[in-house]
UniProtKB/TrEMBL annotation:
It comes from the Bacteria. Residues 13-155 form the Flavin reductase like domain. Belongs to the non-flavoprotein flavin reductase family. This is Oxidoreductase. Keywords: Oxidoreductase. One of its GO terms (molecular function) is FMN binding. The keyword Transmembrane helix does not apply. InterPro entries: Flavin_Rdtase-like_dom (IPR002563), NADH-dep_flavin_reductase (IPR050268), Split_barrel_FMN-bd (IPR012349). SUPFAM superfamilies: FMN-binding split barrel. SMART domains: Flavin_Reduct.
């Protein structure tokens, strides 16, 4: 049953088809990564990006001790990598053993099949309810080579998550 106070909001966001990101990080040499839908640019000058990580997520626990995050976008040709990071939990599966990656800025795990990515320093962390916001300042990355159609929420809507949000 829907809450009358949030019914309009719930119906509106159910229609949105926002981009999906794979966010990776590392702390003490341990890589982690997950699929993220709650993320957006928040400032132009200075450039800032906000990533919301679920408190239940393995990546959230690793990110607690991390100084940086990497944010990746994927084209549809690499939906399998997106599904790996969205349907498995690092509590049970070594996702990085199942994909191609290398160390990037700040020793972050960078996924080789990403169409584009950037690394960001975590400037602030703050509660967003069941997620924690990580405000990033970009420190490096690789832009897309061409205009592509990115993986969006509609592509992964039916995916069983590795952890509930």
């Amino acid at each position: 049953m829907s809450d009358p106070e949030t019914e309009a909001f719930d119906k509106l966001v159910a229609l949105l088809n926002y981009p999906m990101y794979v966010v990776t990080t590392q702390a003490d040499g341990t890589p982690a990564g997950c699929l993220v839908g709650f993320a957006s640019q928040t400032s132009i000058h200075p450039p800032r990006f906000l990533v919301g990580l679920s408190r239940r997520n393995h990546t959230f626990r690793v990110a607690h001790d991390a100084s940086h995050l990497a944010v990746h976008v994927f084209d549809h040709d690499h939906l399998d990598v997106v599904e790996l990071f969205g349907s498995q939990t690092g509590d049970e599966v070594d996702k990085f053993a199942r994909c191609s990656w290398h160390r990037g800025p700040e020793q972050l795990p960078i996924l080789d099949d990403a169409a584009a990515w950037f690394a960001g320093e975590i400037l602030e962390r703050f509660s967003l309810g069941d997620h924690v916001g990580h405000l990033l300042a970009p420190v490096g990355g690789s832009p897309p080579q061409e205009l592509e159609t990115w993986v969006s929420f509609g592509d992964v809507r039916e995916l069983e998550p590795g952890h509930e949000a």
